[in-house]
Specification:
2 domains; Mannitol-specific EII, Chain A; 270 residues; elongated; six-stranded mixed beta sheet; alpha/beta; Alpha-Beta Plaits
Length: 270
Amino acid sequence: MKLSELLRPECVKARSSADDKALALCEIAALAKKSPLCRNVSEEDILEALQDRETLGSTAFGNGIALPHCRIKGVHDFVVGLMTVPHGVDFEAADGQKVRLLVFIIAPHQQSNAHIRLLSALSQTLQNAEAVAQMIAAHTDKQLVKAFVLATGKDIQTLEPAMRNLVQIFVQDETVFKAILEAVASLDGISLAVCDADNGRNHLTQIPLYAEFAKNGVASNCKVIIATVERQLSNEVIRRVEGVTGSLFECTGVMVAVQELTYAAGALEM
């Protein structure tokens, strides 16, 4: 299913006049309640769930964008909606910028994996500054929907394929780890885990023969993203990693290994 197909047109509001975070969340709860998918929950329940999520940390992720979201029992499919606040509203963003575009998700309580993939796919899409600017500039709800549909072409897949590859991404450069993880996490049907690992030099320098190299300091640790993906998506994993690092053949501090699997079953919670 495409991201644009998850958008509920009745849950869209262009050019809100909300002047603080609390009022913005109230308007979002009212918008979400317009969806028939929320008929079994009250507007108050939605607002409380959104507020509870914000107490864990702001859902603003910079550049004037926020992704308010929550999971609620009684909702059986995803409700995605949009709201713009052209003059901006303080959403306690880490970069200090006021939020002008809010894309919200009301998710089924049990579908945490799909929820994570949806968040990841949306955050990737919203890195397109031109598309975001077009959404913020929309004067009507219809224009806002059109701008969102044009910006979102990704599919969210629910069926697990039989033929899969094992992908291991070794990351020594901590400055790119989060970007790489987010880039690959939104892939359809991916199962992944992250492990901490020591670089070999950390252990070699404990052996007397190599002791002198300890004077150069301890090498940074390594994180390993271990994932299974559809075989035909392996090149897409590499493309997304190189979208962060540039060519892997010219990269130091990141390495990708791909291996065909003869058997893979089950899935991992993220």
